[in-house]
Amino acid sequence: MWQLLSRLNKNLVLTIPAMMAAGFVFGLVTETGFLKELIIPFTFLMVYPMMVTLKLKKVLEGGDGKAQLFTQFINFAVVPFVAFGLGRLFFADRPYMALGLLLAALVPTSGMTISWTGFARGNLEAAVKMTVVGLILGSIATPFYVQALMGAHVEVDMTGIMKQIAVIVFLPMAVGYATQRYLIAKHGQKGFQEQWAPRFPCLSTLGVLGIVFIAIALKAQAIAARPQDLLAILLPLAILYGINYSLSTVVGRLFLPRGDAIALAYGTVMRNLSIALAVAMNAFGKAGSDAALVIALAYIIQVQSAAWYVKFTGTLFGEAPAPSCPAPRRN
């Protein structure tokens, strides 16, 4: 089973579109109302595993302050407002789709921030810290951004959103941290890192695929009736990600060393769509399905673009220095 889950996790470029297609077909041929009962279980399956491997202590470590400041400035002072503007431009008469675009921009970083930074041979330590800080700040700030930017256009239940954030983020974070400490105490740090930690992202992927399937299945009839909506959603998403990549690349090239610049790019472009999707589906009732559709489609652009960006990091930031080999010992 673990090998299958690992293969799914390594091939998100293919598995997410495949699951979306499966959800679409399922939603066309079957009554999907019962799927709503699976949202909370799959949400927990999606969020809890990534919390088990979260390294909260990294927040206290220094050494990359400039990269961290640039990252969070882009994450909270730039990207949400770009998303809001695009939502107003493209979804002026469909406020819940505009909400989905905003939610997709509000919770930065995910486990994939660390993974893609590693693939591109960037600064992993900086990426870990960006992930922890971005997740916590984004979770706290999301209700306030939604109220301030969308409160005049959609019905916003601040208390409800805060409760959902607590259930979706902070409860799994607490349980995940407790699980992490238990496994370390039982198996040691090395045993946890080598034997247990690699398994949890695979479980999280299963939750992501399940939630994406549900989100598309619930909207399948509406998509079939208005297929042009898909292009109408993908265009502003592509613009949002394009602006994000461009800004983070320019800032990284101008102000940061190579490793930090790559971490900055993935620390700002990779959004925690899992949490955004869970908030949309749990906090906004039936109307949240429009927002969920936007976020589900964002997975396609995010995963595909991240994979392609790795291929261009050498051109954009220079090739990573080759690892030095120790000189042979003389007898």
UniProtKB/TrEMBL annotation:
It is a multi-pass membrane protein. Pfam families: SBF. The chain crosses the membrane at residues 12-32, 69-91, 97-119, 126-146, 161-179, 200-218, 230-256, 263-285, 291-310. Its main location: membrane. GO terms for biological process: antimonite transmembrane transport; arsenite transport. The keyword Transport applies. Keywords: Cell membrane, Membrane, Transmembrane, Transmembrane helix, Transport. GO terms for molecular function: antimonite transmembrane transporter activity; antiporter activity; arsenite transmembrane transporter activity. It is found in: Cell membrane. One of its GO terms (cellular component) is plasma membrane. Belongs to the arsenical resistance-3 (ACR3) (TC 2.A.59) family. PANTHER family: ARSENICAL-RESISTANCE PROTEIN 3, ARSENITE EFFLUX TRANSPORTER. This is Transporter, arsenite efflux pump ACR3 family. It comes from Geobacter sulfurreducens (strain ATCC 51573 / DSM 12127 / PCA).
